[in-house]
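can u pls check wat happens w/ NDP
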Amino acid sequence: MADTVVWGLIGASTIAREWMVDSIRKHPSGKVKAIVSSDLDRAKAFANDKSIAASYASVESMLADPEITAVYISTTNDRHLPDALAAIEAGKHVLCEKPLALEIADAHKIVDAARNKGVVLATNHHLRNMESHRAIKSLIDQGAIGKVNSIRVFHAGELPDSLKTWRLHDKAAGGGVIYDITVHNGDLLRFYLDANPIRIAAIAATSGAGPRRIEDSVMSVWEFPGDILVQCHDSFVVGYGPRGIEIHGNQGSILGIDVMSQAPGGRVILRTKDGDREIPLELKVTYDRGVADFIAAIQNRGKPPSSSGDDGVWSLKLAKAVAESAATGRTISIEHT
Ligand code: NDP
């Protein structure tokens, strides 16, 4: 196929295994050719499980394959920066996991490198691609609840045992709930409101079994322009709470029930003076849309990826504001530069 996009995967990760390889392969132009892991046996086992032709133990050797034109990066958060810069330097388009980096200056470096090299860079923020969140955004934009005045985000779940690794124990790898979960809230709220917040205050805690300096729960309050207040509860230690979102306006509310997850599903209800109306949702895999938009951007179909490199800088900036507020007890003003 002339317009095939041949992918290399950087990271023998759970998300690549459970979602991304399948989403890439479902696309008519998507072909997965290679995987790289820091451990060759892990790369080989992954390649074997997923029927991938080539496995590597070094990023550079995989990037040397000229047939590979795009990479998906899902290594631990600290490795996104060197992996993305290496891939961009090799002229590959990059779909990178969130957070783009651990420092804002480093995320800017990735965005600048991609721009200078002329390759597409996208951040894999999945919530804005979910049918439920797209339905909510559409209701907000239609004015179905009037002027939005507040949002409550319930993004608190429990990590499966297989993921109770670096997220809970390794700060240097980018562990902690803020860089894992809060960063997604930042992207989703910007998507809903087409605006960036003005200030954020937060308190974090280690309520589970991880080291005390790595937060597994955080509550934060955000102010957006137009006197919109947002409250977020993000956690790794809430086993049975519904993961949802409420958007409140002066003429109604939108309830997103069980919509803060990776799998399609959940419910969206519009509540107004006329009562409750359930919005029908198609059950589509959210990552399929992100991959399709990324491939369309590579093929110059005139559409940017659904969450760009700049969006990735912004969501990191907001996560870092939450982290800074939690660490210092101060309310953090957000610079809009
Ligand atoms: P994993 O812990 O499954 O994988 C991360 C890395 O850990 C892998 O790249 C691998 O490194 C290493 N690793 C994997 N298995 C083992 C093992 N058995 N022993 C030692 N090391 C191992 O992470 P996730 O898949 O959960 O997350 C990866 C990235 O994706 C993160 O940046 C995360 O933030 C992001 N993510 C994004 C989501 C989204 O919806 N956008 C959802 C989930 C995660 P190596 O490749 O070197 O072998």
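The mean pLDDT is 96.
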